């Protein structure tokens, strides 16, 4: 378990990082189990460190982390790390993976886990969840950066070089169709995949 859901809606959720857990990276794939057996799948698109108290502003203290741990250890109890995820699909009770919004959002206080490789490998073309990602760009999500991390992960999940190339070609086609005539944007995304 890497976190616990503190806010959720059909297309996204927000979780607080669990004590002692490692903060998930931008673009990390995560999943949330529902009591009825379905699993919501999301991609981390934002990570924030903030005050535990909503109205309280964090102030600069002019000390290193080590000094704070030694002199003011309580400060760390007043800070939390949260991450937000875009929902890109779900796994049914029967094990099928659907690249669409699940029937309902994850429950509050449900636990968030990193997605296992076996579930990730079930994500196959036509990559319909890319459309969910494009729709989210209007709300200020860094969609181009997410496309880069998604394409890198999809290509690295395939063991054979031939499979890797096929995945990149198919995913690139989907992104190209979604971007329409924005060739410069597509080129920038594809160029960054190999960096």
What can you tell me about this protein's structure?
The chain is of the alpha+beta class and 195 residues long. The chain folds into 2 domains: 1-122, Immunoglobulin-like, CATH 2.60.40; 124-195, no CATH class. The protein has 6 helices and 7 strands, in the order ββββαβββααααα. The protein has helices at 65-71, 117-120, 129-136, 143-157, 161-179, 183-193, and strands at 3-8, 12-17, 29-33, 39-51, 79-91, 97-98, 111-114. Strands 1-2-5-4-3-7 form a 6-stranded antiparallel barrel. A hairpin with a 5-residue loop joins strand 5 (79-91) and strand 6. Helix 4 packs across helix 6. The protein is globular, with a radius of gyration of 19 Å.
The CATH topology of the largest domain turns out to be Immunoglobulin-like
Number of helices: 6
**CATH architecture of the largest domain, please?**
Sandwich
Count of all domains: 2
Low-confidence stretches: none
SS-based class: alpha+beta
Mean pLDDT: 88
Number of E strands: 7
CATH top level of the largest domain? Mainly Beta
Strand fraction: 25-35%
- Computed Rg: 19 Å
Question: Percent of residues in helical segments?
Answer: 25-40%
Strand order of the largest sheet: 1-2-5-4-3-7
Shape, principal axes of CA atoms: globular
Largest sheet: 6 strands, antiparallel, barrel
* Alpha carbon gap, first and last residue: 30 Å
Order of helices and strands: EEEEHEEEHHHHH
């Amino acid at each position: 378990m890497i976190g616990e859901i503190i806010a959720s809606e059909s297309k996204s959720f927000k979780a607080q990082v669990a004590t002692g857990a490692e903060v998930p990276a931008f673009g990390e794939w995560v999943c949330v189990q529902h009591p009825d057996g379905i699993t919501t799948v999301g991609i981390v698109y934002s990570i924030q460190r903030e005050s535990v108290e909503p109205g309280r502003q964090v102030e600069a203290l002019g000390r290193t982390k080590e000094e704070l741990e030694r002199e003011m250890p309580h400060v760390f109890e007043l800070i939390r790390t949260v991450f937000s995820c875009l929902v890109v699909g779900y796994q049914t009770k029967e094990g099928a993976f659907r690249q669409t919004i699940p029937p309902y959002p994850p429950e509050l206080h449900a636990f968030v886990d990193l997605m296992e490789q076996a579930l990730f490998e079930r994500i196959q073309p036509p990559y319909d969840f890319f459309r969910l990602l494009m729709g989210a760009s209007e709300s200020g999500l860094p969609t181009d950066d997410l496309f880069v991390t998604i394409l890198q992960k999809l290509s690295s999940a395939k063991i054979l070089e031939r499979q890797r190339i096929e995945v990149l070609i198919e995913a690139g086609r989907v992104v190209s169709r979604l971007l329409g005539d924005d060739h410069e944007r597509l080129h920038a995304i594809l160029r960054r995949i190999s960096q």
